[in-house]
């Protein structure tokens, strides 16, 4: 009987150990890096500057023209060639205002780039000195509600970067660092325009080898959306939530469209119909959307092929079920041994009697 009890406690210990094994977890750590830009851009504010900001915030008169000047500072120990260009304010997929594009969209006219003829200039600045560059703006013939937002952006000329690499006898793939200064134009001190955020379409795609559902949103008003937060879900045709995602502190440029990228943490979606449902809030304003989209077999296979994230196989579930099955088998064996031992003892007792 003692032998059976010893086996029982041993098997029980093994079962408890296997159960505790299921509680193991792992932590991940993310490392960030920073880079220094050896140049900068500073606005020379004209008399019609409204506020004491670093950027130009100008009260303009319709049907007039004006020169805007900016100082490019080269802090490098050698002369550098820079490209200085006037671009429209756009909204990146990270929901931030950027000033690195001049292409027009199909929203409101005119845009900032429409007002400037010499929108792209190239200058060479000696080492550790500065140089002024000037743009001529021709303002719209009529007043407008809200603001026209653009920016002056400076970056190293590609040929200058290539020459520097050749001088060093090396070749490298480098990022383009830019420095921008916003220019905000308005015909009235009071801004009464109200943002209008709507969803245009949704689709599943990849970006940098990661799968996303991208919801294209547009702000068709001449008003900036500040400190915007969003809550998003992707639901299948049965209403089951297959993905959820939140964003905070977003900034949306006036008269711009962008893609709100919802990461698919479990890989590409299977073929079927889905709904991208979202809510955006900024202060006391809010916007909602429910955009239907379809994932075809080709779309699902293509995104899965291009993505480094594959549909998850729940190995922990399978391992848990396997260990649970093993524990049940152990318990059954223990019970069987106990019953067998009792029957043996009963037979021995009968023989003695």
From TrEMBL:
WxL Interacting Protein host binding domain: residues covered: 170-303
Species whose genome carries this gene: Holzapfeliella floricola DSM 23037 = JCM 16512
UniProt KW Isomerase keyword: no
Keyword Transmembrane helix: yes
Full protein name: Cell surface protein
Keywords: Membrane, Transmembrane, Transmembrane helix
InterPro entries in alphabetical order: WxLIP_HBD, WxLIP_PGBD
Domain WxL Interacting Protein peptidoglycan binding: 39-154
Coiled coil segments of this chain: none
Transmembrane segments: 315-339
Signal peptide region: none
């Amino acid at each position: 009987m003692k032998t059976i009890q010893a086996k029982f406690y041993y098997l029980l210990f093994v079962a408890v150990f296997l159960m505790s094994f299921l509680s193991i977890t792992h932590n991940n750590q993310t490392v960030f890096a920073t880079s220094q830009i050896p140049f900068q851009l500073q606005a020379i504010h004209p008399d019609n500057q409204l506020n004491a900001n670093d950027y130009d915030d100008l009260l303009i008169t319709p049907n007039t023209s004006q020169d805007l000047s900016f100082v490019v500072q080269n802090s490098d120990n050698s002369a550098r060639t820079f490209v200085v260009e006037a671009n429209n304010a756009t909204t990146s997929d990270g929901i931030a205002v950027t000033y690195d594009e001049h292409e027009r969209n199909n929203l409101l006219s005119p845009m900032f780039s429409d007002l400037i003829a010499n929108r792209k200039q190239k200058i060479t600045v000696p080492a550790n000195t500065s140089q002024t560059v000037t743009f001529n703006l021709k303002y719209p013939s009529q007043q407008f509600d809200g603001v026209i937002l653009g920016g002056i952006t400076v970056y190293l000329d590609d040929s200058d970067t290539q020459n520097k690499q050749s001088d060093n006898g090396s070749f490298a793939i480098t990022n383009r660092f830019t420095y921008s200064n916003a220019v905000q134009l308005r015909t009235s001190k009071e801004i009464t325009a109200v943002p209008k955020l709507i969803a245009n379409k949704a689709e599943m795609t990849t970006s940098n080898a990661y799968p996303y559902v991208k919801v294209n949103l547009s702000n068709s008003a001449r008003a900036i959306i500040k400190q915007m937060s969003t809550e998003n879900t992707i639901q299948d045709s049965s209403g089951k939530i297959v993905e959820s995602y939140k964003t905070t502190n977003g900034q949306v440029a006036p008269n711009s469209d962008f893609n709100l990228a919802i990461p698919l943490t479990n890989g590409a979606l299977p073929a079927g119909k889905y709904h991208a449902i979202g809510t955006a809030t900024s202060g006391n304003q809010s916007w909602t959307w429910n955009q239907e989209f379809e994932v075809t077999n080709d779309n699902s296979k293509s995104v899965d092929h291009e993505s480094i994230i594959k549909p998850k196989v729940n190995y922990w579930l399978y391992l848990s079920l396997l260990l649970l099955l093993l524990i049940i088998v152990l318990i059954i064996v223990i019970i069987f041994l106990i019953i067998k031992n009792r029957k043996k003892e009963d037979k021995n007792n009968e023989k003695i009697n």
